[in-house]
Amino acid sequence: MATSVASAKQFLVDRIAAEAEREGAPLNEIEKAMLAFSEVGASEKELDQARTFERDFDDKEYESRIARLARSVYDRDVAAGRKAEWDQALDELASEDFYLMVMLEQAGIVKTTSHLRLPDWRLLVGFVPALVCVALAAAVAFTPLGSRIFPNDVLRLAVAVLLLLAPFALGRLRGRRAG
C-alpha cells in the first residue's frame, strides 16, 4: 500500500514538475519537496525543507502557481488520453493528507468534504441525552401512558419540568468535573 501511495505521489509531482519545466520556470528542490510534504511521518530533512519553505516562500503565491500548473498538465493529460493514470493516482491518495492535495483542490481536480460544512457528529452525541429528556418529558406530560404512571396532574407537570431541566443539570455537573 505504501509503495502505491508513494508512486501515486511521485506521479503527480513528476507531472507538475514537468509542466513547470515545459513552461520554462522549473521547480527548485524545495518546491518539489513541498509538493509531497506531509507532516505525518515527515523525516527531519523534510521538516527542515518545510521550515525553509515557510521562511523563504510566499505560500499563497506558491499554491496559486502549483494549482495553475496542475490544472494545465491535468487538462493536457486528459486530452492526451491519460485520465486513467490521474484517476488511479488520485484514488490512491484520496485518504492521504499532504500539501499537494490543497493545490489540487484549488485547481478543481479533487474535491474534499472540507467545504461541504458537514456537521460534527460528536455534537450529536452531546445532544442525545437532551433529546431523550425532552422526549420523556413530552411523553410524561402529554400521553395517556404519562397520565397512568403519574395520575396527579401537578406531579406529572413537576416530573416533566424536571426532565426538561435534567440536561442543564448534567451539563453543569460535567463542567465541574472537567474544571
UniProtKB/TrEMBL annotation:
Keywords (A to Z) from UniProt: Membrane, Transmembrane, Transmembrane helix
Residues annotated as transmembrane: 121-142, 154-173
Name of the protein: Uncharacterized protein
Superkingdom as given in the UniProt entry: Bacteria
The organism of origin for this protein: Occallatibacter riparius
